[in-house]
Amino acid sequence: MRMKLEFVLIGVLLLVFTAACNSNENTGQLEFIDKLNALRREFAKNNNIVNMHELSFDQNLMNKSKTMDSTGRFVEYRYTFIGSFSNGVNELMNSSTSFEQKSEQEKVEAIDNATTIEDLSFEHLTPGHTKIGCTKSTMGKILCLLAPDGNLSSWFKAAGDAGSLCMSGYKNVNGLCSITPKTSISIPQNHRTPPVPTTAKTELDRQIAKYKNEEQDGDEYDEDFPTTIIASSAILVSPVMTVVFVVLVSI
Ligand SMILES: *[C@@H]1O[C@H](CO)[C@@H](O)[C@H](O)[C@H]1NC(C)=O
Ligand SMILES: *[C@@H]1O[C@H](CO)[C@@H](O)[C@H](O)[C@H]1NC(C)=O
Ligand SMILES: *[C@@H]1O[C@H](CO)[C@@H](O)[C@H](O)[C@H]1NC(C)=O
Ligand SMILES: *[C@@H]1O[C@H](CO)[C@@H](O)[C@H](O)[C@H]1NC(C)=O
Question: Is 153 in the pocket of ligand 4 (CB under 6 A)?
């Protein structure tokens, strides 16, 4: 009986460990996406882009990036590369700065050219994208697919107030068309925090950092993908906990 109990305990530890590793890997990606959303918001505000949308993690795109499946490229999705999740936004910030410095005419040309050649320097700023999924490619870089604006048509909107032209299901939160929150929790309001969170460590920190970027809104809180990770880890662990409980009871 004692042996059995030890095996069960080792099993529980392994499962908890695996779940923790998976969620760390995903948290790296989710933190990257949050920082990228902060960059998109700043870019929209600086350039009067009316239709910049919040990106959310998409499992389908991540799967597609894993297989390097190119069907739908430049039609349903576009892509970019980063070196790491932790520094990815800094890398992208450098290339988007060069785009930002172009004249209006050059921007239009660069966008036109990008539908035929692979100019990757501003894919991450395409306003109409709402989904992203990344994976480490065989070249050691991280490949990120962005969707759905495969032909870049969302760039061609008249300038105006950032966040004033959102798709349905999105609303303007401080210049970024953001996913309409499903639930609300209360977090103390904190105005004028730096736009790019760099210290988010735990999932809760990440959520708080994300919340702070959306500073305008007093009391709403997004519940999206990360909650699912936590929930699925819990589901993974709970049947084993039940077994432990049964074993303990039967001793
Ligand atoms: C992604 O791929 C995994 C396995 O590689 C599969 O279990 C999962 O269903 C896929 N998800 C989607 C949304 O395609
Ligand atoms: C970004 O540009 C700055 C200044 O030009 C440079 O010092 C820095 O190394 C660049 N960062 C990346 C990640 O390329
Ligand atoms: C776009 O492509 C045309 C023709 O290849 C080229 O002359 C022009 O310099 C390109 N513009 C930009 C901004 O890359
Ligand atoms: C770009 O894609 C959108 C949506 O798929 C479509 O409605 C539009 O006609 C396309 N524009 C061009 C120029 O191909």
Answer: yes
